[in-house]
Amino acid sequence: MAENKTQDQTPSDNVQKLRTELEAARAETAEARQALQKAEEEQKAAAQEVKTLRKTAAMQAAMEEKRAMHQLRQQEKVLLTINSEPNDSTPVMVSVNGYAYRINRDEPVLVPRAVAEALKLAIMEVPQVKRDPNGQERTVFRHVNRFSFSVETPTENDQAEDA
Question: E-assigned strands of 41-121?
Fold first, then answer.
């Protein structure tokens, strides 16, 4: 026996239902494309902003470096001599504001005052055993300069050699 078809099962209704679903899918695809396009535009804008920020940071770093170099050059110069030690006569590296100075030991060198100040701050802790009045020994640490050095005011002759 043939079954009676209901209204829902007619081919024209199925086609109409599929068309509606297709239109909904097309609308969804169009929205997704718009969202993708908007995201790509935002990504391009963000990349451009990052590029601009990097360029600005590089310019600021260059200006700061120039300022530091100018400040070091304008600083009062001193005659610095780093003494050699029995086991060490290698040159000493001192860095101030990103500028490194390689100073040979036992040779007077004309440097900005900041280099001498950096050497004053170069300290190390040396262990020392102390005996208490009750006879107990304890280890204490005392601060000593890392390098033995002397600082002198340069003469006119030394100033001329630097220039």
Answer: 77-82, 92-96, 99-103, 109-112
